Every structure is written in C-alpha cells, then in structure tokens.
Amino acid sequence: MLLALAMQLLGSHRRNWALAMASEFEIAARDGQAFRFAFGCLLGACRSLPDHAEGRFTLASYALVFGLFLPMATALSMAAASGFPFVEARDGIHGLVLGSGSHRVLLDAGSLALGPALTLVMLLLATCHLPAAWWVLERDWHRVATALRLAAAIMATLAIVTACAALDAAVLLVPFLALVAEAVTIAGLARFEDAAPAEETTAIF
Predict the structure, then answer these.
(1) Which of 18, 34, 148, 191 is spaced 20 to 30 A from 155 at the CA atom?
(2) Residue 191: exposed, middle, or buried by beta-carbon count in 10 A (0-12, 13-18, 19+)?
(3) Whether 46 contacts 62, CB under 8 Å
(4) pTM here?
(5) Can you spell out the DSSP letters for the chain?
C-alpha cells in the first residue's frame, strides 16, 4: 500500500522511477525489508512533490482539504453540538466550538421549537464538506462545485431560519466567509490545473 501510494505520488512523468521501485520492492520483500523499503520510497516521493507541477498541485489540494475543508466540517459539527446559532457562549465562537464557558439559549418560548431544526441544518452544512474534500483530492470539480452550491443553499436556509427565530444573523458571518474562501480557492485550483501541461495533471487518486 505504501509503495502504491509512492508510485501514484510520483506522477506520470516519473513512471520509469515508479517501475524501478516496483522491481526493487520484490528484492526487498525477499530480504524481509518490504516495509522499510516502501516507507523510504514514500518519503522520497513526498520530497519530490515540490519539484514538479503535478506535485505542487497535489500539495495544494491536500493543504486545502486538511487546512480548510476538514477543519470547517469539524468546527461546524462541534458548534452545532453546542447549540450554534441559537446558543450564546460567554467565550464567543471559541466557546461554542470547544464547549467551554457558560452558555445561554437565545430562543424564547415561542421559537424554542426551532432549535432542533437549526441544529439539523448546521449538521447538514458540516456534512457537505466531507464529500467535497474527497472530490477535491479526486479533482472532480463538477462535484465539488455541486457540494459548494448545496452548502450555499444550506447557508441561505440557515440565515432565513435564524432571522425567523429573531436571532442575529451576523453570527453566521464566519462560516459564510469560510464558504467564500473555499469557493475562491477551488476556482483557483481548477484554473491552475487547466493551465498546467496535460501530461502533468493526471489525477493522483
């Protein structure tokens, strides 16, 4: 598995190196050094990523997934579990995400029934980021765009329900800006792939 990942990371333009790895792996396996050899190949492939366009694109994709998409999914899920956006935390967003400090329910008796609906919508928003992250790695921009459009629709629904509950919709500014950042970054990645030579943009996975 490690060797297969290393071979994929090398890309199509280093296919000869990948084939040499596969041949040498059989010798290493007979000597009982299969894991050590495969791990070394994986490290070598990772170190070579910044040296070519396909590798830089792969690094940018993983940075986007692990630096924005997955943290957003986690933060939104934890905030939803704490009652965001109908619960106010003394420690602000930090308190909602981590569940620290005191919390106060902002819904009155007439709108309290909207609490579960708001939580469900928040969880749907968080869930949208998971398939989108996978599709980013697969470079399936059509599906990524579909997931982001769904997230935007959920965000609009969340804002409407929040306003109907007489809550301050300004609390949704942070997730809204994060969604905009995701859309802008995805558009940049897609343009980067279109501008790269065709032989260097073969999908990694």
Answers:
(1) 191
(2) exposed
(3) no
(4) 0.67
(5) -HHHHHHHHH-GGGHHHHHHHHHHHHHHHHTT-HHHHHHHHHHHHHHHGGGSHHHHHHHHHHHHIIIIIHHHHHHHHHHHHTTTTTEEETTTHHHHHHT-S-EEE---TTTGGGHHHHHHHHHHHHHHHHHHHHHHHHT-HHHHHHHHHHHHHHHHHHHHHHHHTT--GGGGHHHHHHHHHHHHHHHHHHHHHHHS-GGG-----
